[in-house]
Amino acid sequence: MSLRYGETVEAGPPTRLCGWFERHLTFWGVHRWLELNGSTLTYRHREHGPVVWICDLRETQFFAGSNPCELVLCRNGIEPLSLFAPTLKDLKIWFAQMKKVSDGVHDFYHFSAKAGRTRYGVIHLGCDKKDQEDVAIYTVEKGYLPLQKVLILAKRDLAIVEATQTHDSIVRVVDLFESSMRFYIVTELINGGTLSSFLAQPLPEAIVIDMMADILQGLQHLHSREIVHGNLDPESIVCLSRRLPCRVKIVAYGNAAARRDVRLLGGASLKNWQQLAPEVVCFQRRTTASDVFAAGSLMYRMLSGMNPFKANNEAAYLACVSRGISVEDNVWDGISNEAKSLVHRMLDDDASVRPSASDCLNSAWFRDSIGDADPAESRDEILRMQSDPKTVIMDFEQGRSFGGHAISRNKKVDTYSLSYGN
Q: What residue intervals traverse the membrane (predicted)?
């Protein structure tokens, strides 16, 4: 396994360089002091004066200007700055060293439109400069410490990245880059939308079984490599098409970590109760059983259109999980007993008795459904839901359509019915 370009950048000892530049090309030009330390360029008015500005060359464009000895710096959102080296020889030395340390994501990938924003940063559409392959570039601000720890782990032990590159049910990570302020995760580009866009009402069981097969196969692959996802929710499941039925993939980076290092991820956020196993709510170690619980919650929501548990605080949530789920609502009348049995087992409050992802795939629900699903029947059900005036119109943007995950092609907000038409 190897990254496409990320690990080709030389680490080596940090480059150090300093010297005077002129701010203007005149006899009485104003002198400025530049210091290059690794990829960090510092600008001062005096050699030992206070720092005026500092930038990371891996996130800064620079080039030789049209005038003799001219170096042009283009920092993000700031007017280009021209500086003049004392001699052409000095300019060549500076330019060569700056080029050496600047190799990064911008050298290999072209950034185009901003596709969305997540809690960790910004998503851009992009393409590989070499072969023009479309990609999604996920920018992670280092201020978000939990994800930063995970990505440091991923760069040190590439098992997590490797797992994304070897299974069809997991969004493939193409590259990883790091600057002083950000991480860049380059992934395959998927345009179908996140699963959260599809959960406004129940989905046909034949559709759900195919989606759950993809999700559980992805978890089975991660778990077989001693990796716990740790944050499986509708936003971390993406669809390969805007039309049902469709395949889905797991976004495996984020909270994913090697099982032995799961404790690095800290406690759970209680913002989305329905995805959390009770042991996670109690701030215990995340395990493969926690992932199975989260998958069971997704299965419940896809089949019923409802959350399995509703609570306003930690104690109430734990009490709900202890009582177990209910499948007495009318919406469950047409659901098979095998599906009800499996979702009950996956959402058991005792982690030790929950089935593994492999056990789920070997359950009667999957065994008895192979070859039994009628595509025409599923399509009829989708058309019936489309014609229902109560069908909810779902928005594919609203911050949910983002790269590596799911990209919206238009800046305007386009809405689609459950048939994913137009």
A: none
